[in-house]
Each structure stands twice: as C-alpha cells, then as structure tokens.
Amino acid sequence: AEMATARLSTENRLVSLPLSRIRVIMKSSPEVSSINQDALFLTAKATELFVQYLATYSYKHGRGKEKNALTYTDLSHTAEECETFQFLADILPKKILASKYLKMLEKEKRDGEVREDEGEEEEDEDEAVG
C-alpha cells in the first residue's frame, strides 16, 4: 500500500490536473465501472497536454499575442478556424451580442417561411404537369 501511495504522489507531481476530479468525471460515464490507476493518470496527462496545446495554438494564432494575453475570443476563433479543434466549436462558440442573435433568429425564421412557400409552389407545378 505504501508503494502505491508513493507512486500516486509521484504521479500527482507529473500532472497539474487533480486526479480525484478526473476520476469523478470518468466515473460519471455509465460505461465506466472501474478505473485503472494507469488509465486515470494517462487520461489526466493527455487532457493536460491537450489543454496546453489548445492554449498555445490559440495564443500564437490569436490577437492575444499583441496584448500578451490569451482571450476567450482566441479560443473560439481556433475552434472555428482550425480543423483539429473544430469538434470544440459547440463548446467554445463565438460570442455575439444578444440583439445580434435575436436578429439572426428572426432572419432564419423569415427565410424558413419563404422556403416553405416556395416548396408549395413547386408542388403545384408538379401537379399541373402530371
């Protein structure tokens, strides 16, 4: 038991993310029944490296470099523009003003109504030809 504890404390120093929190997140999946200590450590390390990569890439390719800061906008731009990170687009959406969003919804609604009307006209034409 002492060796396992010593190994765990060594592993904790190799990752900056808290293993106990990662274990909780992993256990929240219904498919996971037990978590091997190595799997926990490797998941934590991989997550840490991924977050570092995302942050570094976003910083280097964003406007934050000018201000010497990493911003949410840099992260969302990376998620939108970089193919590697596009799976994060829903998690890191571009920030827009509520008023702009409401206008977009209105436009989509109007466009949808126009399309429905066009669809009905096409059906009428098909019936006339047949």
What's this model, at a glance?
The protein is mainly alpha-helical.
Chain-wise SSE layout:
Layout: H1 2-14, H2 19-27, H3 37-61, H4 64-67, H5 72-81, H6 98-129
Helix pairs in contact: 2-3, 3-5
Strand content: under 5%
According to CATH, the fold-level topology is: Histone, subunit A
What is the 3D shape?
A: flat
> Overall pLDDT, averaged?
80
DSSP summary: helix tally: 6
- Write down the Rg: 25 Å
CATH class: Mainly Alpha
Q: Kindly state the number of beta strands.
A: 0
What structural category do the secondary elements indicate? mainly alpha
What is the name of the CATH superfamily? Histone, subunit A
The CATH architecture can be named as Orthogonal Bundle
Count of structural domains: 1
Q: Helix coverage percent of residues?
A: over 70%
Largest sheet: none
State the distance separating the first and last CA atoms: 82 Å
The secondary-structure element order is: HHHHHH
Organism: Dicaeum eximium
Subcellular location: Nucleus
Protein name: Chromatin accessibility complex protein 1
GO molecular function, one term: DNA binding
Describe this structure in words.
The protein has helices at 2-14, 19-27, 37-61, 64-67, 72-81, 98-129. It has six helices and no strands. The protein is flat. Helix 3 packs across helix 5.
Question: How would you describe this structure in keywords?
Answer:
130 residues; mainly alpha; Histone, subunit A; 6 helices; 72% helix; disordered C terminus
